[in-house]
Design brief:
Structural class: alpha/beta
Number of strands: 18
Shape: elongated
Number of helices: 18
Number of domains: 2
CATH class of the largest domain: Alpha Beta
Distance between the termini: 27 Å
Strand order of the largest sheet: 1-9-18-17-16-15-14-13-10-11-12
Strand content: 5-15%
Largest sheet: 11 strands, mixed
CATH architecture of the largest domain: 3-Layer(aba) Sandwich
Radius of gyration: 26 Å
Helix content: 40-55%
Length: about 500
């Protein structure tokens, strides 16, 4: 399952499941080593290559890779970080495949190889690296050598815990069967470089033995893409309300409103304080405009508009007025996207927010807002765990933004979105995301699906625009993103039909 992210222990359980179902551990190791060799040969021409082989199965994978590279004509040298006579099981078998031409780590020296394969420890290491392995890692990092890691760069914990000692940084990481949290969560993913996940023959049925700790976000089943019978009218496509800040802070709400329209909502209303009505009216064309006086008027206005989803927070300002407006909106019991100031206004009283939230809400903090509401002092090992815990605390969907955006909902498998662009790190980009989520909610999508789908669409828009994008560009490219997604879905459906029924 390409999108499944498995815990390190569960990957080991998959290996055991394979052995229990007729696939030998030596077969798995052989396919792993050959996959490493193939990935290397696909990216580089033959060159002097150093294999650092540890004492366990990771080292065995490296020895098979060394034999495969040598068979392809590559000049390969192996440094073994173990006594050859003490190797047992598959590692000893792999040493037999390679042969006797190994050097002991304590006696070997780095001699300028242009490529180094890190087959020291992989994901299973549970202690800081010390001794000869640490010396080699520090030396090679100082030499700025190109490193290929098997499974994970040694020193990087597979479950994305804290790095406590020396660690490699690789240009390419080849892992097997399924990725682990460290392959997809920063800062660990950046240390892995390019990631290849190779199929090594674990038989079907493993899904009944382990459950994914998370899934990588996939192209969504977005309602706008399914709109094809020509009978829908604007009210069936969803009504969204977006609450604006004052006269000097209206742009964020308009970005969210525009994004909601572009991603499929049939009718979007900007709810404006009287002081900002003229400013908003001078900029709005397709969005509606409603007078909003704040506080307890929020729930009444949502009812009058028959809104099916609302956005609060962007540009609203931090303080009592926003605090009261959010609580009023929450009392209406309808789907809400709460971002920015709607969250920070509860920094001093987060429990008040948590008690008022309901399952139809989506919170979309960046890291600073997240820390202000959920706290930064607790012992949390990584972004995935932090977001899961936050969703359980809030009782609703939490989308923690960043290079790897995590979407978590109580009792559901989290999703991690890496389908994005670094150019999305620009003012107003998050406001566009809130509008897309609201559009999905208004169409009837579950909060978890709306948040994950919006993250993918938002990321795809950023990828299409590339360098130089500004937030105003994002809503305007959404029609192209949705059309491309529709074409993709139709191709997949046609292929599925062909595979099921033939030509």
């Amino acid at each position: 399952m390409l999108n499944d992210i498995l815990a390190t222990d569960d990957c080991a359980r998959c290996d055991r499941f394979a052995a229990e179902n007729g696939v030998s551990s030596q077969s798995l190791m052989n396919k792993a080593g050959v996959a490493v060799s193939a990935a290397i040969r696909a990216r580089w021409a033959p060159r002097p290559t150093l294999i650092l082989a540890g004492p366990g199965n990771n080292g065995g994978d490296g020895l098979i890779a060394a034999a495969s590279l040598r068979a392809a004509g590559w000049p390969v040298r192996v440094v073994l970080f173990a006594d050859p006579d003490l190797l047992t099981g598959d590692a000893a078998w792999a040493l037999g495949v390679w042969g006797d031409e190994t050097e002991r780590a304590a006696e070997a020296v780095y001699s300028g190889e242009r490529l180094v394969v890190d087959a020291l420890f992989g994901a299973g290491l549970s202690r800081p690296i010390a001794g000869e392995p640490e010396r080699w890692i520090e030396q090679l990092r100082a030499e700025s050598v190109t490193v290929v890691a098997i499974d994970l760069p040694s020193g990087v914990p597979g479950d994305a815990g804290a790095i406590t000692g020396a660690a490699f940084r690789s240009a390419l990481t080849v892992t097997f069967h399924a990725r682990k949290p460290a392959h997809i969560i920063e800062p660990f993913a950046e240390m892995c470089g390019e990631i290849v996940c190779a199929d090594i023959g674990v038989p079907e049925g493993w899904q009944h033995v382990v459950a994914p700790i998370a899934r990588e976000n996939a192209p969504p089943d977005w309602p706008e893409v399914r709109l094809s019978d020509g009978t829908a009218h604007k009210h069936q496509r969803g009504r969204v309300a977006v609450f604006s800040g004052g006269a000097r802070a209206t742009g964020a709400a308009r970005l969210a409103a525009r994004a909601a329209l572009r991603s499929g909502a049939g009718l979007v209303t900007v709810c404006s304080p009287p002081s900002a009505s003229l400013v908003n009216a001078s900029h709005l064309t397709t969005e509606m405009l409603a007078r909003w006086t704040g506080g307890s008027d929020t729930a009444r206005l949502l009812a009058d508009l028959r809104a099916q989803a609302a956005v609060l927070g962007p540009g609203m300002g931090v303080g009592e007025a926003t605090h009261d407006a959010v609580l009023s909106a929450l009392s209406a019991g309808m789907p809400l996207v709460l971002d920015a100031d709607a969250l920070t206004s509860f920094a001093e009283c987060p429990d008040t927010l948590f008690q008022a939230l309901h399952a139809a809400c989506v919170l979309t903090p960046h890291q600073g807002e997240f820390d202000r509401v959920f706290g930064s002092g607790r012992d949390r090992t990584n972004k995935l765990d932090r977001t899961i815990e936050a969703a359980e605390t809030a009782g609703c969907t939490v989308l923690l933004k960043g290079p790897a955006t995590v979407i978590a909902s109580p009792g559901m498998t989290p999703r991690i979105n890496r389908h994005a662009s670094p150019w999305l790190a620009t003012a107003g980009s998050g406001d566009v995301l809130t509008g897309i989520i609201a559009s999905g909610l208004a169409s009837g999508m579950a909060p978890d699906d709306a948040a994950a789908g919006a993250a993918w669409l938002h990321g795809d828009a950023g990828r299409q625009l590339g360098a130089g994008l500004i937030a105003e560009d994002l809503p305007e490219v959404l029609p192209e993103v949705l059309q491309a997604l529709g074409r993709r879905r139709r191709r997949e459906a046609a292929l599925g039909h062909l595979l099921t029924h033939g030509s």
